[in-house]
Design brief:
Elements (H helix, E strand, L loop, with lengths): L11 H6 L9 H22 L4 H10 L2 H45 L5
Length: about 110
C-alpha cells in the first residue's frame, strides 16, 4: 500500500493573504489561531486520505465514550473547585462579620480596644 503524496504546508504569507483572520493581539489569540490552523490542516488530511496514523488516532480517541466521561469528570471537578472557592470566600466574609459584631458589642458594653 502506497501513501499519497503530501501537499506542502502553506506558508504564513499564503495563509495571511487569504484574509481569514486579523493579526493576533495577545499570545492567547495567537495560540487559538495556530490551533485552528492545525485543526484545518488535520481535517484536510483526513478528507484527502493523507493523514498520519497519529492524526487519525487522535481524532478517534476524541470520539470515544471514555473521552466524554473524562471530560464530564473534569467539568464536575471544576464545579467542585468553584463551590469550594465560594465556600471559603463566604466563610471569610462570615468571620469578618462576626469580628465586627464582637467589636460592636464590646464597644456597646464599654470595653475599649487596646
Amino acid at each position: 500500500m502506497g501513501r499519497r503524496a503530501h501537499k506542502p504546508l502553506e506558508s504564513i504569507s499564503d495563509i495571511s493573504s487569504q484574509g481569514k483572520s486579523h493579526p493576533a493581539r495577545t499570545p492567547e489569540e495567537r495560540e487559538n489561531q495556530l490551533v485552528s490552523l492545525a485543526f484545518d490542516r488535520a481535517e484536510q488530511q483526513l478528507r484527502e486520505g493523507t493523514a498520519s496514523a497519529q492524526v487519525i488516532t487522535h481524532f478517534l480517541k476524541l470520539g470515544t465514550i471514555k473521552n466524554e466521561i473524562e471530560l464530564e469528570k473534569l467539568r464536575q471537578e471544576n464545579e467542585l473547585l468553584a463551590a469550594k472557592t465560594s465556600a471559603i470566600k463566604s466563610q471569610e466574609n462570615m468571620e469578618k462579620i462576626y469580628a465586627d459584631a464582637i467589636k460592636a458589642m464590646q464597644k456597646y458594653r464599654g470595653i475599649d480596644e487596646k
